[in-house]
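[audit] Reproducing an earlier prediction to check determinism. Same input, same settings, fresh worker. If the tokens differ from the archived copy the diff job will pick it up downstream; this log only records the rerun itself.
[audit] input (247 residues):
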Amino acid sequence: MNAPVPLACSAPGIAALRVENAKDLPVRGRTIVVNTGARPAVVDESPVKSIPPFSSTILVDTRIRLADSLILLRVDETAAAADVVSGPGWNLYASLLGDAPAPEPDAPGPAFPRDTPLWRGPQDDAGTVLLDPAAALGEPDPTGRQEEFEVRVNLWFAPAGTDCAIHNLHDFIEVHTQVLGIGRMQKFRTPDHGSLYEDLLMAPGYTTPQPFCATGPDGTFTYPWHQYRADTDCVWLAVEYHRRTNR
């Protein structure tokens, strides 16, 4: 078993670690466990149950029998969510966009509202994974062709009441795991709050049950209009799967 490796996306009150090829891995204390691998992570309890890919749970003083790739988040639940932005590498998201429009002028949808109090922490590489994208996304006609994806992770923060901007463009597969506070992942028919059609409430340890995207005919990823909304002060983990295969 490889030893857990601390990640740069750790923040005040949140220790983030990466583990690959876990075997009989002890989980000490209360820990959010995110399965970033392509196969279920097996928890060593009776009856034996697994953490599916693209999902997470909270484990307490137990052991993981077998897993390809995990992110472990050990959280000080007494810490204020807003404290994370005092850690190194945290930036107001609007400041990272510079003077460039968001999205590009020929892209559909509104530009990112620059007064949105959305903060992003440093991003870590978290290994690679082999996926058949169609199979991984639960589509009826998987290709059976495995492709290599780079996994990247980072934390986000938004204060209570923040709408983090409706958007539908990503060139990667993503899921979100709640770390502190109560938030929502929301889907819309159009880039308008009145067109909401799905509202997924997120408590600590919860990951959106399946990536929102589908594969397009050209192999890109098609997303519905969606956003994160913070009901309380919130910290969440973004897990991104970036295709390495040249198309």
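[audit] rerun output stored. Observation attached for the diff report: Residues 101-107 have pLDDT under 50 and may be disordered.
[audit] end
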